[in-house]
Amino acid sequence: MGKNKLKKFDDLQGYPHVFQYPFSALQEKGFEMQGKWGKQFFKNENPIVLELGCGKGEYAVGLAKRYPQKNFIGIDIKGARMWSGAKQALEEGINNVAFLRTNIELINRFFAKGEVSEIWITFPDPQMKKVRKRLTSTRFMQLYQNILSPEGLIHLKSDSPFMYTYTCEMVKANGYPVQVSTDDLYHSGITDDILEIKTFYEQQWLERGMNIKYIRFVCQPREQFIEPDVDIPYDTYRSFNRGKRSRKQSSQENTISK
Known about the structure:
The chain is of the alpha/beta class. It contains 9 helices and 8 strands. The termini are close together.
C-alpha cells in the first residue's frame, strides 16, 4: 500500500465525522448509534439521507451544502476515496455530513427502522451478470425498506443503459410509484439543481457524449418482491471504473483515486 493511502487512512482515524467499524466489532457489540444518528451525532431531528457507494463523496458533500436542513451520510468500503469528501467537509465546516466505511450489505446494522428518509445511488457498477449485487435489485430493496421511512425515496443516477433499464423494470414489476424518470437527464428540461451536482466520473462520461439517466421512486414497504424477468441488452462500453482494463488505464485510475 502506498504512503499516500496510508496517510489518508491515518487521517480518517482522526476525523470525528468518519465512522469505520470492523466487522468483528459490529458482531460483538453492534453499532451504538443505530437509531440515534440525529440525536447523538448531528444533534438535531432533521431527515437523514444516504449516498451509497459514495466514492470521493462529491454528492454527499454537494447535497449537504445545498440542503443544510437535512443530514447526509456517504457510505463506501473504500476509505482512500472517501477521504476527499471527508477532508473537504472538515475544512469547510460542513456539519451536516458524515461518512461511514462499511459494506452496503451491512447498512441494516447501522440504521434503525424508519431512520432514513432518502437513499441516493450514484453511478453504481451495474453488475450485469450478478443480479444479487445490483444495488437496485429486490435483494437490496428488502434491505432499504427496513431502514427507510414508509414513503422513503430512492434516487438512481447512472451512465449505464443496462442499470437504468433494469431499475425501471424492477420498479414496474413491484409497483413502486415513480416521481421522475428520464434516460437523458441534461436534455430533459428538469431544472432541479440537486441533479446538477456532478461527480468526477460523471464529468468524464459527459465529455464522452454519454447520456445520464435518472429515476426517483417511492420505496413503499412490500411483503413480497418480484425480480423482473426480462432480457436487457448489456452495455456496449466499459466505464472508467469497471470492467476489464488495460494495465496503463488501471494505473491511471489508481493514481486519480488516491
